[in-house]
Amino acid sequence: MKKILLIVVTLAFSVVTILALQDVGYLGIFTGQLQNWGEIQVIVDLVIVCALAVLWMLGDARARGLNPWPYVLITLFAGSFGPLLYLLRREFA
To answer: 17, 34, 54, 90 — which has fewest CB within 10 A?
Structure first.
């Protein structure tokens, strides 16, 4: 059940991301979030959550003998895709 949920969430998020990229482009996703303090707060919140996810991935991957670095890089450039793909990799390992 966990695998199915991870696949569904990843695919749904992929669709939303593709639509956003088509609409505003990669940089537009970020520049659109810098218009006021409310939007800046959301970006800062996401950066904090992604940083915490990276720290968790590093420790979890070390304990499981997995290489976390591809997922860390994905997180740096594509946000939640890094942890989602890491969780999928971990479930199918």
So the answer is: 34
